[in-house]
Amino acid sequence: MTAETIITARGVTRRFGGLVALDGIDLDVPKGVVQAIIGPNGSGKTTLLNALSGASHADAGSIRIGGREIFRLKPHRIARLGLARTFQNIRIFDNLSVLENVKVAAACNRPTPFLDILTSNARQKQSEADIDRGAREALETIGLAQRADDRATQLPYAQRRLLEIARALASKPNVLLLDEPAAGMNMTESMTLLDTIAKLKSRGITVLLVEHNVRLVMGISDRVTVLDFGKKIAEGTPSDIQRNPLVIEAYLGRRHRHA
Amino acid sequence: MRLELTSWPVLVASLAAVLAIPLITQDGYVIQLLNIAILNAIVVLGLNFVTGWAGQINFGQAAFYGLGAYTTAIASKAGLPWITTPFLSIIVVIAASLMLGLPTMRLRTYYLAMTTIGFGEIIRLIIVHWEPVTGGTSGLRAIPGINVFGIGPQGQAQHYYLLVAALAIAVTVAMRVRHSALGRAMIATRDSEIAAEQSGVDTTRTKLLAFMIGAVYAGLAGCLYASSIRFISPDSFSGTQAILLMTMLIVGGMGSVAGSISGAVALTILPEALRFLGQWYLVLYGLGVIAVIVLAPGGLASVASQVQWRRAGAR
């Protein structure tokens, strides 16, 4: 690769008992691209995302984000280093408003000394104002600004997915991991989502996208990585991938191979 | 426009009503009961940080209450000036909450509940068996009253005003935390620990802080309990009391400041108000608690919120 890589993973392995969910995955993601990770059900896509974000650590391997080793770092440390993510099964904060959901992440790299909270001093007020502004900007980008004061649980399904993206965005990440962001969305909503991803890319954010709907990702992705049974079986541009016999076999012919 | 619970006319009216009570009733028994209700409200507000916001089950809150009360009683009976006792109480409960919290904040749900029950029982046993210092099961009497450089409240009405002021401070701090990054981090931790972590929240630290703040609330309420009621015994800080405090929070409304207070006040006063029923009072009391939980799972606060209140703002 000529471009600078922002994620460099080597030999990432994750076992669940006897099952090898990730089998020595190497992954290079160039800075500023949209890269998709696709693969059949159970191929290890989400496990890889969890290993990268620290949600569920890998057993072995090395993961570098912007040159920094993050293997086995706690998730909040990884988040503070500039990696944000969304979840396949939505995890918003039900007891907070839409704006407050995003504010949680907007406070990401902003320590709040308890004494400042107690005295509610000028520094604390300034900090809260900055958090508020950051959170509202993120909602604006995603198009949820008009729902800011609603309870998060009042949002319809597709908007909850957008809220997760807004929350991830508010921590001002360099890398954004999206885990099946279009799941459960209709065609119009998916199209809006693609526009949003393009907008994030234009802001210099590297997007790593796990998606089940292959057709959806082909248009937006610069690079595609294909996993099957915990192994990387192909990587390249969308058109390369579409012609790759291994990929076609993984998607269409796996019953023959592994029955 | 709907009238909000936190709007000025409502606040002023309820404050006036609260302040007028000792003028209306001269009955020392009633005011004493209210004093205990206010102290319980402070303890439940503390529990609300841990359980209501951070989502950690804690049956150790009564023990922290007791630690504050016994620290204050022992210190002031030993002749230390009263003004030192709140600080001593804070030091003792912070030390105890770190001892309990550091190893247990990784535990969840039942396991954490069991550990905190065990902690409460250990504290109770120490109080019961360390007789020369704690007075054992008969407790400690004639505890010196509140006295700051010769000035202190006289009579129950003055104590009442002092405790109302203490509650007001407790509420102010709770609201400030709620509307800070820390308060949002607590609720985020309760709603989804992993999503909170991935948003940059150190959930272990957040839970521990909630736990410590809750313990300090209980410790300071214990300090005020010992020096305003002037008599303490292990019964007031037992496991039964811990369950009662949790019930107050649930009946009032988890995660709600107004709910914590109304739950504590209602469940402190109700047993006394139902005393005329004799042994049947527990039946009615139990039914009442069940009715609130079944009919309004969000507690008394959620009943109020159906009338008014933007939930996100006032929680």
What is the radius of gyration of chain A computed over CA atoms, rounded to a whole number of angstroms? 19 Å
Give the amount of beta strand of chain A, in percent. 15-25%
Tally of structural domains of chain A: 2
Strand order of the largest sheet of chain A: 6-7-8-3-9-10
So how many helices of chain B? 15
| Main interface: chain pair and counts | A-B, 44 and 31 residues
CATH architecture heading of chain B: Orthogonal Bundle
For CATH, the homologous superfamily of the largest domain in chain A is named as P-loop containing nucleotide triphosphate hydrolases
Helical residues, percent of chain A: 40-55%
Q: Overall mean pLDDT score of chain B?
A: 90
Instruction: Give the biggest sheet of chain A.
Output: 6 strands, mixed
Could you list the spans of chain B in which at least 5 consecutive residues all have pLDDT below 50?
308-315
**Helix share bin of chain B:** over 70%
Overview of the structural elements:
- The complex is a heterodimer of chains A (259) and B (315).
- Chain A has 259 residues and is α/β, with parallel strands linked by helices.
- Chain A folds into two domains: 1-82 and 173-259, P-loop containing nucleotide triphosphate hydrolases (Rossmann fold, 3-Layer(aba) Sandwich), CATH 3.40.50.300; 92-172, no CATH class.
- In chain A, 41% of the residues lie in helices and 24% in strands.
- Chain A has a six-stranded mixed sheet with strand order 6-7-8-3-9-10, sandwiched between helices. In chain A, strands 2-1-4-5 form a four-stranded antiparallel sheet, with helices on one face.
- Chain A is globular.
- The two termini of chain A are 37 Å apart.
- The mean pLDDT of chain A is 92.
- Chain B is mainly alpha-helical.
- Chain B has one domain (8-19, 28-136, 153-314): ABC transporter involved in vitamin B12 uptake, BtuC (Orthogonal Bundle).
- Chain B has helices spanning 8-24, 28-53, 61-77, 84-104, 109-129, 131-134, 155-178, 181-191, 193-198, 203-229, 239-252, 257-273, 281-295, 300-307, 311-314.
- The longest helix of chain B is centred in the C-terminal third of the chain and has 27 residues, at 203-229.
- The radius of gyration of chain B is 19 Å and the shape is globular.
